[in-house]
Every structure is written in structure tokens, then in C-alpha cells.
Amino acid sequence: MKFIDSILRGIGQVIFQNNIFSGLLFIIGIFYNSWLMGLAALVGTVISTVTAQYLKYSEDDIKNGLYGFNGTLTGIAVLCFFELNLITATALVLGSVLSTLVMNFLKKRIPPFTSPFVIITWLLIYTLLLVFQYPLISYSPISDTTFNFVAAVSNSFGQVMFQENIITGLFFLLAISVNNKLMAAYAIYAAVLGSLTALILSESATSINAGLMGYNAILCSIALFGKK
């Protein structure tokens, strides 16, 4: 049970939620949109957490999911950008392990947040594209001509974990609310503000409705929540 607790907290920590129920709702939301990405999220979290346990990193950090969330994002990212096969599956495993090593290295110097995921994912994409010459998955988004408020806000939550699905976004919002309702309200405000700012700056309705202009605002609002 302690291991499952760490895994769920790790998934929750992607959006700063140290709560097992938040983590559970996040993973349910991902599976709702894509069972493959849901599986990738679980595998990435498990591998990064087990790596930390094997290397005997801080038990408190492991318990609180701090070695899990970068693996969560790395797992999702690999299958967001590339088709699943033996090479990309290996990259997912290796990337999840490396995310833990980078996390442990950086946390002694600076607050790392998701920088281990960013660094490792860049390296994986570079390697798969240029060394193995694997093509990126080609997406053909439907072009929107009008702003959709509900889609923009809900998808902003989903895009924190590469999910463009309104229902998934609502699961994510619920997950934050379970942990802290005021934090969820801040996140909604940030998503609205980010989306409307993009609209004022004449960004494409397609990008705004997909949540690409709001998810960073959500993360900033939650990261700064309660700070003076």
C-alpha cells in the first residue's frame, strides 16, 4: 500500500498535488482520453519511483511522490510524440530512470520542479529523431475559427499532461479541488486569464481552444499559491 501511495502522490505532484485521491483522478482522466498514455504515465511513475528506492534516496521524498512526477511526464511525452515500439518503449524506461537521477542531482542545488522531465525529454526527442530517425507523430487538428470558452479552460488543465480532452480537463480540475478548493479557483482564474490574453493578442482560436495558452498559467498560479 505504501508503494501505491507513493505512485499516486507522484502522479498528483505533476500539478503540485500531494494527495493520493488527486493522483487517482489524474490517472483516470488520462486513461479516459488515451489508455496508452495512461499506461505510459503509470509505467513512467513506477520506474522513476523504483529507481529512487533502489538508489536509497530520501524516503520522505519518495513517499511524497517527488521522484515520481518527472517519470509520469516523461512516460506520457514519449508516446505523445512517437509511436509505440521496442525502441520508444526502451526510451520511456531509460528516460524515467534518468529523470530520477537528474532530479536528485538538481534538488541539492535548486528547486528542480519539472526541469528533469524537460531535459530528459529533449534528449530523447533529439536521439530518436536524429539518431534513430524516428518521425514524430503527425497530428491534424481541426481548425477552429471561433473561441470556445469551455474548451479553452478545460483543455488548459488537460494540457498540463499533454491531454486535449474536455472531460479529462474536468477530471484534472476535480483532482485539484479534492486537495484544495481555493487552489482550484486560482487555477481556473489563471486558465481564463491566460486564454483571454492570448485571444486579445490574436493567437489562433485552434491553439487557444486546445488549451495551449492556458496550461502554463495554471502551473504558475498553483506554484505561487499561498506565497506572500
UniProtKB/TrEMBL annotation:
Keywords: Cell membrane, Membrane, Transmembrane, Transmembrane helix. It comes from the Bacteria. One of its GO terms (molecular function) is urea transmembrane transporter activity. InterPro entries: Ammonium/urea_transptr, Urea_transporter. It is a multi-pass membrane protein. Its main location: membrane. The keyword Protease does not apply. The chain crosses the membrane at residues 75-105, 117-137, 157-176, 183-202. It holds the Pfam family UT. It is found in: Cell membrane. One of its GO terms (cellular component) is plasma membrane. PANTHER family: UREA TRANSPORTER (PTHR10464:SF4). Belongs to the urea transporter family. This is Urea transporter. It comes from Aequorivita xiaoshiensis.
